[in-house]
Q: What sequence folds into this?
């Protein structure tokens, strides 16, 4: 299986807008080539007798049933807020509107 050069790793890092140091590029080059080697080893396996599968594990619903239950009152919820006004929780703006 082909391996990745440092230039290949630097090019992909550039495309992903990752600012990697030389040490990080070297480490990532080794890690990615190790992953590619492992996939190369998988190609050596005889899988002719294995049926194709779309799911490797049994699927089961792990979610609980949706049960109606009492919730906090407005007053109790607002009591936990750092700031409240007119029955609403007041928070700082998280997006600059650019106005």
A:
């Amino acid at each position: 299986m082909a391996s990745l050069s440092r230039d290949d790793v630097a090019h992909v890092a550039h495309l992903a807008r990752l600012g990697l140091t030389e040490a990080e590029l070297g480490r990532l080059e080794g890690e990615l080539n190790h992953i590619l080697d492992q996939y190369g080893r998988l190609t050596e396996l005889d899988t002719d007798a294995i049926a194709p599968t779309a799911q490797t594990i049994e699927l089961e619903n792990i979610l609980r049933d949706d049960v109606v239950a009492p919730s906090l009152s407005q007053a109790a919820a607002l009591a936990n807020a750092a700031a409240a006004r007119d029955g609403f929780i007041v928070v700082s703006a998280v997006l600059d509107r650019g106005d």
Summary: Residues 6-42 form a domain with the Histone, subunit A fold (CATH 1.10.20).
